[in-house]
Amino acid sequence: MPENRRKKRMIFLLVLILVVGFVSTSLLSYFLARSSLRREITTGALPLTSDNVYSEVQRDLIQTVFISSLMAQDTFLRDWVIGGERDTDRITKYLRTIKDKYDTVTSFFVSESTRNYYYADGILKSVDPEEERDVWFFRVRTMEPDYEINVDPDMANRDTMTIFINHKVYDYEGRFIGASGVGLTVGSLAELMDYYSDKYNRNVYFIDDAGTVMLLSTRLPESARNIREMEGMSSVADSILASDGDTFAYDLNGKNAYLNTRYIPELQWYLLVEQTVEGSDYALNRALFINLILFAVITTVIILITIVTVNAYQKVALRQRSELEDKNEKIEEALTEVKQLSGLLPICASCKKIRDDRGYWQQIEFYIRDHSDADFSHGICPDCARKLYGDIIDHKEGGGDDG
């Protein structure tokens, strides 16, 4: 029984050490990997995606701003306006050339003197300060900068949402004579957003400074039109709109979500790039699960090997112990049959008696008999016989009496 208890205790301690060691190592590796993954997302991958999208937007915007600036400085356009805006075909041909050459969705010029809205197919309309859709022109007249970027429906393209670059045009003496520019379809930005959404598995949004969703990748539902109404993002909506750019974390349908934001002053919009870590967490959880299964298998094998080894050694030990006990019994039996006298024995020089441990003198044969397994039978040696019975012996040897 004690041996079985010791064996069970040893196996229990072995299992405990293996479980604590392996589970601690696996969980530590898991949490370190998850922490590293989240740090990589928030400080590396997510900002990089935002930078890429922003650079693509900037490239398209800068190109259109450059085109609008060229138009505003074009001597043909200014001379044609100063000359009384005669021959509409000439300005129409010019605007069509700009549109085709630079592959813009539209090109236009609105005259300050006539209020005509010219585009690639002729005169679209006359702008009116009372018309809500023409407010942009009268805003451009009085603004400080030479150009603005504005998002409006394009009447010339079935009210397609378009990013317009509206640029002031001055005569040679610096007087305002109209506004020219080109348009970049919002759809091109949507295609860009879809591209990055598919490539990096991230959600991309554009919102205005009120949180209204202006543009989002086509694979996202359009149910919520403001980030304050969107699950997860609503918890950080005020912080998003209060900063020019930052990284946020929140819970989205039970998943960890991370958001990188950037304010684009040219559009007066925010670019939002959102990523959930469901796929990454699934890979980490799967790896942890596989590690735990392998650990269970390895632990089981180790325990079985330990049990078999311990049982084998226990059998050998029991056999050796039994053999040793048998030998000990035989030795004890032999020792019980053997008694030895040892030490100094006080003996009388005359009568040859021995003094025992209590101080009594005993005949030597009695002492030896009491302190060993030897016993005595009495006889007489020849010398003593002559000494004691010499006459009788001599008589017998001489043949007895003559009479």
Describe this structure as you would to a colleague.
- The chain is of the alpha+beta class.
- The chain has two domains: 25-276, Beta-Lactamase (2-Layer Sandwich); 354-397, no CATH class.
- Helix content is 52%, strand content 20%.
- The protein contains nine helices and 13 strands.
- The strands form three sheets. It has a six-stranded antiparallel sheet, with helices on both faces.
- The longest helix has 72 residues, at 2-73.
- The chain is rod-shaped and about 195 Å long.
Short description, anyone?
This protein has 403 residues and is of the alpha+beta class. The chain has helices at residues 2-73, 75-82, 88-102, 135-142, 186-200, 237-242, 278-337, 364-370, 382-398, and strands at residues 106-111, 116-119, 122-126, 147-154, 160-170, 176-185, 203-208, 213-216, 247-252, 255-264, 269-276, 354-355, 361-362.
Q: Label the overall shape.
A: rod-shaped
- Determine the number of helices (DSSP H or I, runs of at least 4 residues): 9
Spans where pLDDT lies below 50 across 5 or more residues = none
Q: Remind me, CATH topology of the largest domain?
A: Beta-Lactamase
For the biggest sheet, the summary is:
6 strands, antiparallel
Number of domains: 2
Number of strands: 13
Structural descriptors:
403 residues, rod-shaped, single chain, six-stranded antiparallel sheet, 9 helices, five-stranded antiparallel sheet, alpha+beta, Beta-Lactamase
Topology of this protein?
Blueprint: H1 2-73, H2 75-82, H3 88-102, E1 106-111, E2 116-119, E3 122-126, H4 135-142, E4 147-154, E5 160-170, E6 176-185, H5 186-200, E7 203-208, E8 213-216, H6 237-242, E9 247-252, E10 255-264, E11 269-276, H7 278-337, E12 354-355, E13 361-362, H8 364-370, H9 382-398
Antiparallel strand pairs: 1-2, 1-6, 2-3, 4-5, 5-6, 7-8, 7-11, 9-10, 10-11, 12-13
